[in-house]
Design brief:
Layout: H1 5-13, H2 20-23, E1 31-32, E2 38-42, H3 47-52, H4 59-70, E3 78-82, H5 96-113, E4 117-121, H6 123-129, H7 136-139, E5 144-146, E6 149-154, H8 157-162, H9 167-184
Bound molecules: uracil.
Uracil binds next to helix 4.
Length: 193
């Protein structure tokens, strides 16, 4: 049977392919428009996301909302998912085994969404989606093309909360994302106020 969003989310909710499922409060499957042309991919849920079952609802999420607003986007126009769908304890990085166990769900989400553009948020997402040796400090803002999809990575909003000196570079990357989206997206309104 081909996936639907509903069956995929239900199946994912029952996943116990790694130990993270046993310790979570909620699955954090994804949020936003299931017909979006632009997909944002983060690392994994933190405490607030685990409590609410939604990605990027804590402090990093507030900054992500502000970053999207700069380029005329919001959650209703994009789809947001994570590399791992259950919270790693203490917000540690997901282990490679957890990442690998979870990636098939992201692949199936991506196959359903068929985005024109993917924006990886931070190193963990970029290494999983673009290439294992991805260096976020050197390669943020670079463009890659895989299976017809334009892919880039920017600093994770949590990194931008910790280090405000990274913000000007991210502003440049965001404007490039806006320009690329205006070029390749047909249905996404990116007008800024
Ligand atoms: N950080 C992430 O990478 N994902 C979230 O959903 C929240 C914080």
């Amino acid at each position: 049977m081909p996936d639907t969003w509903e069956t995929l989310e239900r199946e994912c909710n029952g996943c116990r392919a790694c130990p993270l499922g046993a310790g979570r409060q909620h699955l954090v499957f994804g949020d936003g428009s299931r017909t979006a042309e632009i997909m944002f991919i983060g690392e994994g849920p933190g405490q607030r996301e685990d409590e609410q079952g939604l990605p990027f609802v804590g402090p990093a999420g507030q900054l992500l909302n502000d970053m999207m607003e700069i380029i005329g986007l919001d959650r209703s126009k994009v789809y947001i998912a994570n590399i791992v769908k259950c919270r790693p304890p203490g917000n540690r990085d997901p282990l490679n085994t957890e990442r690998d166990a979870c990636l098939p769900w992201l692949r199936r989400q991506t196959a359903l969404l068929r985005p024109k553009m993917i924006v990886c948020l931070g190193r963990i997402a970029a290494q999983a989606v673009i290439k294992p040796e991805f260096r976020i400090t050197k390669e943020h803002g670079h463009w890659f093309r895989k299976a017809g999809v334009w892919i880039t990575a920017i600093y994770h909003p949590s990194a931008l909360l910790r280090d405000v000196y990274k913000r000007p570079e991210t502003f440049v990357d965001l404007k490039a994302i806006q320009a690329k989206a205006r070029e390749i997206c047909e249905r996404t309104d990116l007008s800024t106020p």
